[in-house]
Specification:
5 helices; alpha+beta; two-stranded antiparallel ribbon
C-alpha cells in the first residue's frame, strides 16, 4: 500500500513507525494508558498499541530513553532505525527510495493518471508529466500473479522485492504482495 500511497496524487501521510514496519505492540493490562481501553477494557478500543515509542537502536528502551517510557518499547525483530538504516532491503530503505523518487519525478507527485489494467488482485496504472512516464504495478494478493497483457515493459526502477533486478520477458509475474515501478516510454 506504500507504493500506492507514494505514487498517487495527494499529500502522503506516514504514521509514526510505519517507515520501520512497526506493528501494533502488545500492551500488558498494567501498562495501559489510553482512557478508552481503561473505561471499556478488553474490547480493543485503546490506541496504546500504535503509540509505543519508536525504537531508534538496539539499546535498552530502543535508544528512546534512559528512563522508563510511558508505554513499553516493542523490540521484536529488526524494527529499530539504526539496523534498518544500514540494510538496503529494509522497510526504511524502501520508504527513502520511494520518497526520493517522488521528490525527483514530478510524474509521481503531480502527473496525470491513467489506468492500464485492474482485476481483483492486480492494479496497473501510469503516471506521466512532460517526458517522465512511469508504470506502477501492484499485486494485492498473497499469491503470484501474472502482469496483465495491457501492461508494458519498461526499465525497473523500484520493487518491494529487493532481490528483483529486472522485470522483462514474456512471463512477467508479480510475487505475493509485490509492487513495482517501471520507467516506460
Amino acid at each position: 500500500m506504500l507504493m500506492l500511497l507514494l505514487t498517487l496524487r495527494g499529500t502522503p501521510t506516514v504514521y509514526q513507525g510505519e517507515e520501520l514496519g512497526m506493528q501494533d505492540a502488545p500492551i500488558a493490562p498494567e501498562h495501559i494508558q489510553d482512557p478508552w481501553e481503561k473505561n471499556v477494557p478488553g474490547l480493543g478500543l485503546g490506541r496504546d498499541p500504535v503509540r509505543t515509542p519508536m525504537p531508534w537502536s538496539g539499546e535498552s528502551q530502543g535508544g528512546f530513553s534512559t528512563g522508563t517510557p510511558w508505554l513499553p518499547v516493542d523490540m521484536h525483530g529488526t524494527v529499530d532505525q539504526a539496523r534498518q538504516r544500514c540494510d538496503g532491503a529494509s522497510m526504511l530503505s524502501l520508504y527513502r527510495a520511494l520518497l526520493g523518487l517522488r521528490r525527483a519525478e514530478p510524474a509521481l507527485a503531480v502527473g496525470s493518471y491513467s489506468r492500464v489494467a485492474c482485476s481483483d488482485s492486480v492494479l496497473v496504472y501510469e503516471r506521466q508529466h512532460d517526458a517522465g512516464k512511469f508504470q506502477i504495478a501492484l499485486n494485492m494478493s498473497d499469491r503470484w500473479q501474472a502482469l496483465p497483457p495491457e501492461a508494458r515493459s519498461g526499465k525497473l526502477v523500484i520493487s518491494t522485492r529487493p532481490d528483483r533486478k529486472d522485470f522483462s520477458g514474456k512471463d512477467r509475474q508479480l510475487a505475493p504482495n509485490e509492487a513495482l515501478i517501471q520507467c516506460v516510454t
